[in-house]
Design brief:
Elements lengths: L1 E5 L4 H12 L3 E5 L13 H5 L4 E4 L8 H22 L4 E6 L2 H4 L3 H13 L5 E6 L4 H9 L1 E2 L2 E5 L2 E2 L4 H12 L5 E2 L3 E2 L4 E2 H11 L6 E4 L3 H8 L10 E2 L4 H5 L5
Parallel strand pairs: 1-2, 1-3, 3-4, 4-5, 5-9, 7-12, 10-13
Antiparallel strand pairs: 6-7, 8-11
Bound molecules: NADP nicotinamide-adenine-dinucleotide phosphate.
NADP nicotinamide-adenine-dinucleotide phosphate binds next to helix 1, strand 4 and helix 6.
Pfam family, one: NAD_binding_10
GO molecular function: protein-containing complex binding
InterPro entries: ComplexI_NDUFA9_subunit, NAD(P)-bd_dom, NAD(P)-bd_dom_sf
């Protein structure tokens, strides 16, 4: 089975490509690095030819409400149109637990992406998860404040991207089912603690300062809106187990 992975070079996408192979399928990688632009649509129709499913693991690094909505709506519309043209029967998307409720900044883009899919009569599946363990690494890449590391005040129950990737491939291998049961990590953590542990484990010496982000975005991160509800499925790998797999 040919499975297209959009955002194939990202934190999740690289794991999805591996999971597609591990499941005995053929991955087709999409990113600007592979010559396909999900915003302009260049190269998209050709990349989708003969595919049975597409897993959309693309993302913007922008946290502005306008840019995030623009990115996720344009990409989703372009993908759905190209899938129709190429006869791809299954669109698999990933969103974030609580994003539609917070609906601000980056999460406004995820809410808009979800809305587009929910308006489609069929042909799609959507998995919502918590932050990945890799989110701590992503924050380290973006939040340097001079000699300090800025981290938003945030409650999170992070999950292994490898487990999310395997789940997305299992979903893509079956029929479209709309909204899938959500998937969270094994335990709640404070994001500033995770970043501290990540910095220490990777030999980086930088004091971490917690930032109280203003507005609905920051409130959503602080108040537990992004945490799973009781009874949500939980992944197995803890943050510390993941950290032990990261080399310096
Ligand atoms: N990170 C988390 O903790 C987390 C948690 C839950 C859900 N999610 C969701 O999971 C998905 C993946 O997130 P991530 O953190 O893995 O993203 P990421 O690491 O930032 O990767 C983004 C990917 O999108 C590609 N991309 C960006 N713009 C593109 C364009 N115009 N055309 C083609 N490809 C483009 C990038 O490749 P190029 O730059 O080479 O184009 C890259 O492969 C997103 O939908 C995100 O909302 C993330």
């Amino acid at each position: 089975m040919k499975i297209v992975v959009a955002g194939a070079t990202g934190s999740l996408g690289t794991q999805v490509v591996e999971a597609v192979r591990a499941a005995g399928h053929e991955p087709v990688s999409i990113s600007r690095e592979t010559g396909v632009d999900l915003i302009s649509g260049v190269g998209l129709t050709e990349a989708l030819r003969g595919a049975s499913a597409i897993i959309d693991a693309s993302a913007t690094s922008s946290t502005s409400t306008k840019a995030s909505i623009e990115f996720f709506t344009t990409v989703t519309r372009n993908l759905l149109a190209a899938e129709r043209a190429a006869g791809v029967p299954h669109h698999v998307a990933i969103s974030i637990i609580g994003a539609a409720k917070v609906n601000a900044n980056y999460y406004a883009g995820k809410a808009a992406q979800e809305e587009i899919l929910r308006a489609e009569p069929d042909g799609w599946s959507l998995l919502r998860t918590t932050q990945f363990h890799e989110f701590a690494r992503q924050l380290v890449g973006h939040g340097k404040l001079g000699p300090f590391q800025g981290v938003p005040q945030m409650r999170s129950q992070p999950v292994a991207a490898t487990e999310v990737a395997a789940e997305l491939v299992a979903i893509a291998s079956g029929d479209p089912r709309g909204i899938e049961p959500e998937l969270a990590g094994p335990q709640e953590e404070k994001m500033s603690d995770l970043v501290r542990r990540y910095l220490a484990a990777t030999g980086q010496r930088r004091p971490v300062i917690e930032l109280s982000i203003p507005g609905a975005w920051g409130r959503g991160m602080r108040d537990g809106s992004l945490l799973p509800k009781a009874g949500t499925r939980r992944g197995r790998q803890t943050f510390d187990e993941w950290l032990a797999t990261q080399s310096r």
